[in-house]
Amino acid sequence: MNLSGWSCILSIAALAACASVPSDQVRKELLPTGKLRVGIGIGASPSAFWATKDPATGEPRGVTVDLANALAKKLGAPLELVVYPNSGEVTAAGPKGEWDAAFMPEDAERRKMVDFGPAYYLSTSTYMVRAGSPIRTLAEVDRPGVRVAGIANTTTARTAVATLKNTKVISFRTVDEMVAKMKAGEVDAIALGRESLRGLLPQLPGARILDGHFHAAGTAVAVPKNHPAALAYVTQFIEEAKSSGIVRRAFDGAGMQGAPVAPPSTR
Question: What are the structural domains, with CATH classification, of the chain?
Fold first, then answer.
């Protein structure tokens, strides 16, 4: 190869290296404390949103933890995980400046509070009914006397409330509380994402997950409002993570081998 050819390759490599270096504005918006603070939710079973606690160490592990580590590595910054018991509290903490980036289900209410980048997972929500329940379909959930449990201030719970005309949704702060209430026979159905419900089946012998769904949404990266440089950076990060296999490996590591990675974003 002649000198001109080598010069061209070196120039491309240099441009690629520069493109991955965060600008001063990106660092100002994503690393105001010198660390990357990532908001995540901890639950009883893993999903594209829920991380879990390692039984041996007590440390968070899961899809969002893997993505947070990958983003911190790309930024060349130390990572601090900011843990919450549900997605509603993750969202509410954004305007308070408690985290610099986060991962959560996207909906219209959340878009009022944070800015979303691309989805890395497209999820569906349905109901799990207790062992011995006569309920067989989504329509049969919407009957007087049926007790439905949902996580307060979450996309799934809000949609359940909006779509159920004859049934009241009882709000809880954590998944563990809902599981305990179902074990005690105090709720008939749990409204949650399908992947999370599958993870709960071992804790609730005889429980069944209903076919179909009452809500479908993306789980996406988010940043606080009015952080355009941060939003552009995490958008590029998620698209690269989807195409490079980072998201796929995170799903597989969390036991979500059948979960599809969201397609490239068109926004």
Answer: 22-123+217-253 (3.40.190.10), 124-215 (3.40.190.10)
